[in-house]
Design a protein that fits this description.
2 copies of one chain form a homodimer. Chain A folds into 3 domains: 7-167, Chitobiase, domain 2 (2-Layer Sandwich), CATH 3.30.379.10; 174-487, Glycosidases (TIM Barrel); 525-572 and 609-705, Alpha-Beta Complex (Alpha-d-glucuronidase, C-terminal Domain), CATH 3.90.1330. Helices cover 38% and strands 10% of the residues of chain A. Chain A is globular, with a radius of gyration of 27 Å. In chain A, helix 9 packs across helix 10 (324-335) and helix 15 (491-503) crosses helix 16. The first copy, chain A, is built from 23 helices and 16 strands. In chain A, a hairpin with a 2-residue loop joins strand 4 (121-128) and strand 5. The interface between A and B is large, with 91 and 90 residues. Strand 2 (56-59) of chain A pairs antiparallel with strand 1 (2-4) of chain B, so a sheet runs across the interface. Chains A, B: Residues 155-467 form the Glycosyl hydrolase family 67 catalytic domain. Chains A, B: It is an enzyme of class 3 (hydrolase).
């Protein structure tokens, strides 16, 4: 058969080719735009929006962040309207941006901006000279910038912007990403390619991507970024690297983002040639003061240091028989003249301490309450172990009333399937922040109460075109930012916003995708580590199941340390008959956790060692309940695949195909987790599978032999 | 001052914002399109082109590569015409694509396709039924595909496509990229981010970028790709990794590209549990046969293996007292039933051999001439050392008449400033291929004469948005492909095409940029290693100058081994009074190289140790000439910066800014090379600087102390 195509046919072929051949970036929807995806709205919505954004008014006596806000609003509305601007030059002003101090137009409106602080905003529909306008106001340019992004979001989601009043201010002051980015470009626990920071070409070349990174963060209210890994190299504090960090700070400043650096505690020895890094040694303190002066000369709004000390091989004050407070306060004194702060991590577990690892941070830090300088904030992981699929809240929250604490969340999914698994972390983050400390306040409320407050998230960002290695992992960055602004925010509502901004507002898509996300973290818990189990993954990579591992040098590196399964039962007894970790919680909480019957079932095996035939609330035995959870997790992922396949007509082909491929991997992995785990537990408890349960596809030896070579995120 | 902007003003602001704020990928010209950048032509050119591409005719009984060709032509013309296709359905056919065997329309034309082989093409303007048409024909789909890309290039460059006849066939059969990509994503000597291959998500996810990679290669005629590093891991030959390679092969097949793998010689031990990898052991041979069968089942058009054996720590047949021919022939027997080949590297230098390193490959391989199976091709680096800024051609070229040889070029600039320096390698490649072997034929002619022939290029490609870490490094990929097709092609003409396709055809831009590129490699030689010097760079990173290094374990790792500078003179005596490496060349060449007066000055110190006051053709002393070269190199780069700055109005802002930043680095680096080198040579020869020469900015100690931490491309 011969074919002859005219130019109409060519159009057809071009469209066909666009399906068959992946198109170039110029046309492909490759995920780069993140949630700042400004596409033309449906006509009815457009007609409504157009007059409300016809003219943007701001004052150039406002600061650079207001100028940034105006540019962002222009860019967004032009892309969303998607048409040639109207030709009249006489349209009335329709949006007014600014601060009372910088804009006479705002000042004249005499808006009530009390309670908005340095970063809050007010969006209000009002009239000026009888004309309807939308005002975006704040006490500073930062507030105006955040308010403008909130206004853009309204427009983007097709929500009316007439007759509105939105007041919002962040509950936490430091909303910070921690990049575990090494200076050689490798990102520890990074699943999205090389580090975003091209240290090699900085400071000469400022990749446009740095600006897009800042835009994305500013749109969420993220106001700080720690550029380098907490496992820090001293080199990041040398003059060439300070100049590189300064170049990034220059890019981020118009977006209200400060730069921080992770500091290696022994830098005075490695760079300064000192014989000690003892925090009480005057020469050491002087070295850090001089170093702080040097950094602030290059970066006038530098934020300060993040320190991982005496943890997993990093040096710290304990090497000199000093306390963590001694170390933190010495650094705090160095940065104080510049208004800087020190974020000091509480993630410690001693190499020689035989105590339950879950107890060690509390044991070490609780006695230091009240001894940290007021420009120190202690960064505490959400749970007492290490970013597991589910942990109870960290007992330090509520236990250090005289110390500023900031929770550390992990956005990158080290223990939750990397970028490969669709696991929306909003519910995990919210669970951590909403946890009742037993002291009348939630974790989120406890940490917000301090003069210094914040939330840290270990970034999942790299040079991957999608930024995060998958489309759905973008939602985890997004949810972190939204919860840092308001720890009480609803993760499902956050997901709904993200879906609308990322995929469009078609309700046939928004509802199902939001629902897919909502249960995805619980599904991962189910197929990986149900009922309070934790730390069951393979050594090094942390990706696949290996509950059988028992031969690593340190006891608390081995999965068997955590699950303690034997013929009689399973679980870690953290009551008085065990490690008594429950005693680290407030009395009410401790009392409930001390009893299996009053311990929430999702945390049951975290706190209790129970017989395999322990009777669960469902009436099932513990063993049958475990198997049911594994099955439920696998079924959820299978369902994710079906639902996503059905959404194909509503999603652009590139983003649909990538997600479909990753879901295919996830389903196979969920089965792997379930089957390997069941095969192992069966080998320990000798019990038959509950009736109706599907036996593992392979025998235990097969799962033990399975290798995970060259897993990403695990630097040598 | 207050501002009020109407929608026209908003348009202005949007444009301003586009300049101030880097725009998203949807609008930014970020280099991703490479030379396949199809932009609307000027109106006059459009009017000329439009009727000639109005209707594309092909037959679906042709193979998938013809379908690919038609889709590519559709895509290109639609983007270049940049308008809505005409609405007539009755336009005459204007382009006819196909093979005589697959397309009756082509068969009826009775074109003379003799001499075009399997991959050549004929583009000819002719008439069909009285209507003018452009025919693109080949004996196979591959020829049609390459011809179609050639036609697209004509259109893209605004060249008329009426009244043309273009016949072209590749001079070399294997036109292959060697990826030094490790399975963990790190690219050895890679300066463009992580490996393009996301082994982690393969085979489930086929990144659209894989297709764009194939398109770019096919447009140059590159027909093979070795996916993994020659420093190979056995794991790449396991079933999971074969499946991943197969997924890539599926993507590449429609573009005429075969997949090859680097093979680790001891894989039968590591994967097969054998006690030996002795090539003469029957079990070893059987293991490789079974492995080849397994790979070809998954990849029916698999190409074969590339092997680095007994070189820099890699295992090989010499470990069993067998020859390279023994090893290669054993593998060749395994792949022969499938039509596969073995590319066997001649880059060897023995750990214990005190002989001049430049001589060792010849010494070891020359005696094996005629002993390699006919499906083995020996891959020989262009020069006898290792991809230095300038080397003489490798003496093996012309010395193994009974062995198929393929030159190995390095596209990635390990020794030429990484992605940071603008160094166009076309002249280096052409110099290597045009070198007179002294046996009546150039290197390019010698290697083309064999039944099996080819050219290998070590790829400079990674996940960087620009693919190669800079815009101008794209030209090196391009030049490699063009020279693999025709080793006699003119590098300046290639540069001119590349500039036109990459930046547009404005003559105010094409001329100057082509000229900038033309001299850039000589400039790098001048500021790094003039007059035949080589291997003067710092240990490990290979980026900056360190001619003083003398303390590395093996003599031939040290720069002092190569330059042999002392108070009396400088250079490596490779004549009879020295290592007599000249004797490895054909007699005429050897005779000329044996005498400084008849040795080309660019190679003078490669072959001769000469006194500092040796009189050069310029009349200057050697020392003064060296300094003049350093100065010339620095001046060239300074001039590059000036010229590029002046071109700002003609280049899109993103690509201009990136290149300007890199040129800034390059100029500083050129000064560093010059000043460090001159400081060191002065310390050796004790001579004053020639009159007028600028003294080094710092003293020698400063240059010696300078560190290059975290240089890319140097895996731990």
């Amino acid at each position: 058969m011969l074919r002859l195509f005219g130019r109409w046919a060519m159009l057809f072929w071009l469209m066909a080719a666009a399906l068959l051949l992946p198109s170039t970036a110029a046309v492909a929807d490759d995920g780069y735009d993140l949630w700042l995806r400004y596409r033309r709205l449906p006509q009815a919505a457009l007609d409504q929006v157009r007059p409300t954004v016809a003219a943007i008014h701001w004052s150039d006596s406002d600061d650079v962040r207001v100028q940034t806000a105006a540019a962002e609003l222009n860019r967004a509305t032009a892309q969303i309207l998607g048409d040639t601007p109207s030709s009249t030059a006489t349209v009335p002003r329709s949006v007014v941006l600014g601060t009372p101090g910088g804009s006479p137009a705002i000042a004249r409106l005499r808006l009530d901006l009390r309670g908005l602080g340095d970063e809050g905003y007010l969006i209000r529909s009002t009239t000026v000279d009888g004309q309807p306008v939308t005002v975006v106001a704040g006490n500073t340019g930062a507030g105006v910038l955040y308010g403008t992004f909130a206004l853009i979001q309204q427009i983007q989601l097709g929500r009316p912007i007439t007759g509105i009043t939105i007041r919002s201010a962040p509950k936490l002051k430091l909303r910070v990403l921690n990049h575990w980015d090494n200076l050689d470009g490798v990102v520890e626990r990074g699943y999205a390619g090389q580090s975003l920071w091209d240290w090699w070409t900085l400071p000469a070349f400022k990749d446009p991507r740095y600006t897009d990174y800042a835009r994305a963060n500013a749109s969420l209210g993220i106001n700080g970024t720690v550029l380098n890994n907490v496992n820090a190299k001293a080199e990041s504090l040398t003059a060439p690297y300070i100049a590189k960090a300064a170049a990034l700070a220059d890019v981020f400043r118009p977006y209200g983002i400060r730069v921080y650096l992770s500091a290696r505690f022994t830098a005075p020895m490695e760079l300064g040639g000192l014989k000690t890094a003892d925090p009480l040694d005057p020469q050491v303190a002087a070295w850090w003061r001089a170093k702080a002066d040097e950094i602030w000369r290059a970066i006038p709004d530098f934020g300060g240091f993040l320190v991982k000390a005496n943890s997993e091989g990093q040096p710290g004050p304990r090497d000199y028989k000093r306390t963590h407070a001694d170390g933190a306060n010495m650094l705090a004194a160095a940065v104080r003249p510049h208004g800087g702060i020190v974020m000091w991590r509480a993630f410690v577990y001693a190499e020689t301490d035989p105590e339950d690892r879950a107890k060690q941070a509390y044991t070490e830090f609780k006695p230091l309450d009240g001894r940290f300088a007021d420009n120190v904030i202690v960064q505490v992981k959400n749970g007492p172990i290490d970013f597991q699929p589910r942990e109870p809240f960290h007992p330090l929250f509520g236990a250090m009333p005289r110390t500023a604490l900031m929770p550390e969340l992990q956005i990158t999914k080290e223990y939750l399937g990397f970028n490969t698994h669709l696991v929306y972390l909003g519910p995990l983050f919210a669970e951590a922040l909403r946890a009742d400390t037993g002291r009348g306040r939630s974790v989120g409320q406890v940490v917000a109460g301090e003069r210094l407050s914040g939330l840290a998230g270990v970034a999942n960002i790299g040079q991957s075109r999608t930024w995060t290695g998958s489309i759905f992992d973008q939602a985890n960055w997004y949810a972190f930012g939204r919860l840092a602004w308001d720890p009480a925010a609803d993760p499902d509502a956050i997901a709904r916003d993200w879906v609308g901004e990322t995929f469009g507002t078609d309700p046939r898509l928004v509802g199902p995708v939001t629902a897919m996300m909502a249960g995805s973290r619980e599904a991962a818990v189910d197929y990986m580590a149900p009922l309070g189990l934790a730390h069951l993954m393979g050594t090094g990579h942390h990706y696949g199941p290996a509950p059988w591992i028992s031969d690593l040098a340190r006891p608390e590196w081995n999965p068997v340390y955590y699950h303690r399964a034997n013929r009689a039962g399973i679980g870690f007894d953290r009551t008085r008959t065990g490690s008594n970790a429950v005693a680290q919680y407030a009395p009410d909480i401790a009392r409930r956790l001390a009893n299996p019957a009053t311990t929430p079932e999702p945390l049951l095996l975290w706190f209790h060692h129970l017989p395999w035939d322990y009777r669960m609330q469902s009436g099932r035995t513990l063993w049958a309940e475990m198997v049911a959870h594994y099955d439920r997790g696998v079924a959820y992922v299978a369902d994710l695949r079906r639902q996503w396949a059905a959404l194909a007509p509503l999603v652009d082909p590139d983003r649909h195909a990538q997600t479909a491929a990753l879901l295919q991997i996830q389903e196979a992995d969920a089965r792997w987790w379930r089957d390997a785990s069941i095969a192992y537990w069966s080998s320990i408890n000798g019990l038959p599978l509950p009736p109706g349960a599907v036996p593992p596809e392979h025998d235990l030896a097969w799962y033990k032999a399975r290798q995970v070579p060259f897993a990403p995120g695990n630097p040598k």
